[in-house]
């Protein structure tokens, strides 16, 4: 009998007493794990439990299992199942902090972060790897994988939610490159999810969101030859958002799939905006495209930066700061361009510290059918992230402002939402995140987790 089975059997023979964390045999789990088990008061616990957003620092788990192998993950799942809340943690960027369940067990995957690129271009990636690790290893092998922009975000969350990013219009979503995934299920089993072996689970893992079906411990991706992209930022004077938004919508709709460029609208009185992006090609071919944007807007830019980069350098250009940051955020999805740019501008007027970030879809994203993977927004025009930088003291006001902008977008006919920008306050989150794929996803979640081991506030077992 395997070590984890012995531990499981010994626990099952002992009736649970007490409630919550008292029901877990923490010492038994500590002995069974190869990696450390950290409890409150243990050296390193405070650092290990904290997520990217300091607003979630009040989410204190009962323990953090720093897993070093799939066997460790199985041990952790079996020990905690239906005794305490259980969640995997990779990058720790869950907006509401779902990867740090209160009085629960964090299955910390960050020690499982190895990235290996094979001769055929296939990459195996540990589920604890951050995008910085992935891009670095791929860049050295002259390969690329389309994924997110923030270097400290975990590859697991990105992939399981679909994986939008600056190369998506040319290469598709991160999930579109997934070949197989190693998964620990709610009953502690380890299995390989692939199109041939477990088609339903494999379908669900490509856009169905993290935390719903099991804990992925390793991904296998098909990669592409690394391009040498052009990166750019075009800033516009404050007060010109309506003109630029109108022009950007027309421009990106007509752009070649080699071009990805988002529009970042910053709140203020008046609001300002900038267009930042990535072109898979040389700057000599990018400049005429940017000239076209400026011409359509009729607004003279206040700055214009255009640089030729290699793949890793381009990804680093969008990486941002690695520091922890306090913020409140939500999302919507634009099925079509907005018909009232002035009304969108009004939503950000006077809201200093807020941003509305429009990331275009289309291109290779739309080459895949809505129900070919779990990601439902294949035919949409863009995703919209509503973001407010804040502190604990002003959190309530930030939440009110984010909700007001989200509601304002809904009033403009903008619905839907992106599961990787998960928001407990989004009123229609089930349909928003999953659309026509909700029913099938719910069925698969119940098949693989009938006892709701991985249950959480916005989990599929709740809908």
Describe this structure in words.
The protein is α+β, with helices and mostly antiparallel strands and 463 residues long. Helices cover 30% and strands 21% of the residues. The protein has 15 helices and 18 strands. The chain has a 7-stranded antiparallel β-sheet with strand order 15-12-14-13-17-18-16. It has a 5-stranded antiparallel β-sheet with strand order 5-6-10-8-9. It has a 4-stranded mixed β-sheet with strand order 1-2-4-3. Strand 5 and strand 6 form a beta hairpin. Helix 1 packs parallel to helix 4 and helix 9 packs across helix 12. It is globular and about 70 Å long. The two termini are 37 Å apart. The N terminus is likely disordered.
Number of strands: 18
Total DSSP helices: 15
Q: What helical percentage do the residues reach?
A: 25-40%
Low-confidence stretches are 1-18
Instruction: Report the mean per-residue pLDDT as an integer.
Output: 95
